[in-house]
Amino acid sequence: NLTQVSQEGSKLRTTKDKMGKKDNSKAKEKKAERKAYERKMNVGVANVKLANEVEDPLGNLPKPFSVFNKNGLDLTLETVRAPDMEEKDLAWAFDTVKNTMKPLYDDAYKNDPDMDEEFGWKENEKKTEMREDLAWYLIARTNEGTAVAFSHFRFDMDYDDEVVYCYEIQVEKAFRRKGLGRFMMKVLEMLTIKADMLKLMCTIFKHDKPMVEFFRKALKFEMDETSFIDTAQEQFEYEILCRHNQIKKRRMEEEEANEENALVKAHGGKQHHHAAGCC
Fold it and tell me: What are the pLDDT tens digits along the chain (279 aa)?
């Protein structure tokens, strides 16, 4: 029956057309997502570049963030790039890190030669890292100019997020337990907000109890989404923590909601649901 064959052919064409439209719609959606990701990356990279071009990040904050006058301390704070630091201060910073951190690295990895080779204390690499052009230092000094505490930090991209990454926070023993470390982290948080970065991040050893207490309890840092999670097969010695810039986070959530609404309107009011997954 020719009529029946014609009708079946018409149905097949209609089905193929629908499938074609569906595939085309998915392709457009993927393309839009890719463009949104690229746009986010480009904006983030440009923002980090701007932050690194500022001559004196601390100078952009209110004056009270440049001084610490509490608990018997009278200190002045400054931000300076590694290439602009005096050699004696760079040497002191490295020695301080080595004395504090090398025992922690040894405790974590020395008993496993393979792990020690990959993750253990590497003196030359650390020394190079602390002198790189992109390394910033927040330094606390006495009235005589002696450095007594510092943080090595960077404005950087962590995956597709703009962040301030705190590589080190070190306070000389005689100046601890006086609120200085907490104040310096508050300054870094303010620099995060001022530069419009999404979060302030750090990596700590899980067995370093004072640091765990400091970051998790005192400063209310949370585990970052990029931090590895222990499993029955594999355990990690460190964790990555963060504290979000809530102003930027809310703004980004609003922008994403607006983009989603625009997509819904573009698809004739139909909500598109995406399956959760890591890949």
Answer: 544 445 555 555 555 555 555 567 778 778 878 888 888 899 999 999 999 999 999 999 999 999 999 999 999 999 999 999 999 999 999 999 999 999 999 999 999 999 999 999 999 999 999 999 999 999 999 999 999 999 999 999 999 999 999 999 999 999 999 999 999 999 999 999 999 999 999 999 999 999 999 999 999 999 999 999 999 999 999 999 999 999 999 999 998 888 777 766 766 665 544 444 442
* Three-state SS letters, 17-65: HHHHHHHHHHHHHHHHHHHHHHHHHHHHHHHHHHHHHCCCHHHHCCHHH
For tokens 């080595």, what's the residue? 98
DSSP the chain: -HHHHHHHHHHHHHHHHHHHHHHHHHHHHHHHHHHHHHHHHHHHHHHHHHHHH-S-GGGGS-GGGGEE--TT--EEEEEEEGGGS-HHHHHHHHHHHHHHHHHHHHHHHTT-HHHHHHHS--HHHHHHHTTSTT-EEEEEE-TT--EEEEEEEEEEEETTEEEEEEEEEEE-GGG-SSSHHHHHHHHHHHHHHHTT-SEEEEEEETT-HHHHIIIIIIS--EE-TTS----SS---SEEEEEEE-HHHHHHHHHHHHHHHHHHHHHTTTPPP-------
Please give the C-alpha separations between residue 73 and each of 140, 151, 180, 188, in angstroms, as whole numbers. 11, 18, 9, 20
Is 0.90 surpassed by the pTM of this model?
no
